[in-house]
Design goal:
Blueprint: H1 3-12, E1 38-48, E2 55-65, E3 73-84, E4 87-97, E5 102-104, E6 108-114, E7 121-127, E8 132-138, E9 148-154, E10 160-167, E11 172-180, E12 186-194, E13 201-214, H2 221-225, E14 242-243, E15 248-249, E16 259-270, E17 273-281, E18 285-287, E19 290-295, E20 298-302, E21 308-313, E22 319-326, E23 342-347, E24 354-361, E25 366-373, E26 378-385, E27 390-397, E28 409-416, E29 421-428
Antiparallel strand pairs: 1-2, 1-22, 2-3, 3-4, 5-6, 6-7, 7-8, 8-9, 9-10, 10-11, 11-12, 12-13, 13-16, 14-15, 16-17, 18-19, 19-20, 20-21, 21-22, 23-24, 24-27, 25-26, 25-28, 28-29
Length: 430
């Protein structure tokens, strides 16, 4: 990859998943908003190895809210860096104004957020219970001429039964129908494509099974995962969207709120019939710091309530996004404060026996590195300290806590400090 390509890439990196906002009702502060959270910060990390110069970079976005309407973004701050090999290539620290709005109605409200992609804007229509009804994208917050629209339909128990996505410049539509069982669990979703709104051609099918066990704590995975923005806005090739830069799928992952999930089976519609191309489990488990899952598209982390915390790309050269949410009640925004910078690079990946973790942090802190297999079992735990304003390097060995070699497969490294949590996905292929 050429240096210019790296810089051009960084101008756009961080566009996906940066508009995740908990768009919950705030029509009157007489409501109990102590449990309502807003997106405070997004940290994105990317790395690229193997083609052209090795490089990695990080970008942090911090949203600055209005003092009277604490769910309204007035500006946002972006700061980060790009490294080529071990040399700093580029860094930045900028603040941008955002002319958005919040509009309250009897049974819903409308909220706008920046997307950091060509000055585009996300506009969501949200019910007073916090369910997203529409998720639309345009290049103007004041008089939106939508490029992409998404409309969601729910049953009486507020379980998603249909999503209709329209790419307006070409009038292409994608429709996803969700089939539920008697317990309101999603057992199948089928996606269709149409260019005339009349004739629909099947494109993708996903089937879900369940273990029969109930989830350990009540959560709202299905509701909260829809707050992830529709990345199809950036790459109009499918219903659920792709990462335009590395063609890495970045769809939100369906997890049932109340029941433990078993196998997932994916199909493509090819030659007038369904063809299975993947079957496996989510690797879903509940740990001390929240819920974890993996999928062909990446690794996912939620907090104990089912709120998304981070999403990691499944392939080398893709992004990791980390989200920090805060409750607005009783909080004052400090526009001068700078959140600590933190990033982790892992190379080589796939692992042939040893992977070097390069950790960058702007403060001294203790880290725990917990390694889990795809079934969610912890295989080892390590600790180390970071050095401010310098890289900390540690060799991650593909061994367990008894120093026995790990079998080939996918492993999740949960790196936890007092201020950050990040998940790296490493493939062992010896």
């Amino acid at each position: 990859m050429k240096v210019k390509a790296i810089i051009d890439f960084q101008k756009h990196v961080g566009t996906l998943f940066l508009t995740v906002l908990l768009l919950l009702p705030i029509g009157a502060y007489a409501q109990n908003i102590s449990t309502i959270k807003r997106l405070q910060q997004v940290h994105s990390y990317w790395s690229y190895f193997g083609t052209g110069p090795d490089g990695y970079g990080a970008d942090t976005y911090r949203f600055l809210y209005d003092s009277n309407n604490r769910f309204q973004i007035n500006s946002y701050r972006s700061y980060g860096y790009i490294y080529q090999y071990d040399s700093l290539l580029y860094s930045w620290d900028q603040t941008f104004d955002f002319a958005g709005y919040t509009q309250f109605n009897a049974d819903h409200f409308i909220y706008t957020t920046p997307t950091m992609s060509g000055q585009s804007v996300r506009t969501c229509v949200v019910s007073n219970d916090g369910y997203i009804l529409e998720d639309n994208y345009s290049y103007s917050p004041a008089l939106p001429a939508y490029i992409v629209t998404n409309k969601y339909e729910y049953n009486a128990n507020m379980r998603l039964v249909q999503k209709l996505r329209t790419y307006l410049p070409q009038n292409i539509q994608w429709k996803t129908i969700c089939i539920l069982d008697s317990l309101d669990r999603r057992i199948e979703e089928i996606s269709y494509k149409s260019v005339d709104s009349i004739n629909w051609v099947p494109s993708q099918k996903i089937q879900y099974s369940y273990t029969g066990e109930q989830s350990p704590t009540p959560c709202e995975f299905e509701k909260c995962n829809l707050y992830l923005p529709d990345c199809s806005f950036y790459y109009n090739s499918g219903n659920w969207g792709q990462d335009i830069y590395f063609l890495n799928y970045a769809q939100s992952l369906y997890i049932c709120d109340n029941w433990s999930m078993g196998d997932i089976t994916l199909y493509d519609y090819y030659n007038q019939e369904w063809a299975q191309y993947w079957e496996g489990t989510t690797g879903f488990y509940h740990g001390a710091n929240g819920y974890y899952a993996s999928f062909p598209y990446g690794a996912y982390v939620w907090d104990h309530s089912g709120m998304p915390i981070s999403i990691s790309g499944a392939e080398e050269g893709t992004n990791t996004y980390e989200y920090i949410f805060t409750a607005p009640s009783g909080l004052e925004d400090n526009h001068e404060s700078v959140p600590s910078a933190f990033s982790i690079a892992a190379y080589p990946n796939p692992n042939r026996g040893e992977t070097q973790l390069v950790i960058n942090s702007d403060k001294h802190e203790q880290l725990r590195i917990c390694t889990y297999n795809i079934r969610g079992q912890k295989v080892k735990e390590e600790t180390l300290s970071t050095t401010p304003s310098a890289s900390t390097t540690v060799q991650w060995q593909a061994t367990d806590m008894q120093n026995k070699p790990l079998p080939n497969g996918v492993y999740l490294l949960s790196i936890i400090s007092g201020s950050h949590r990040e998940v790296k996905r490493i493939t062992v292929a010896k």
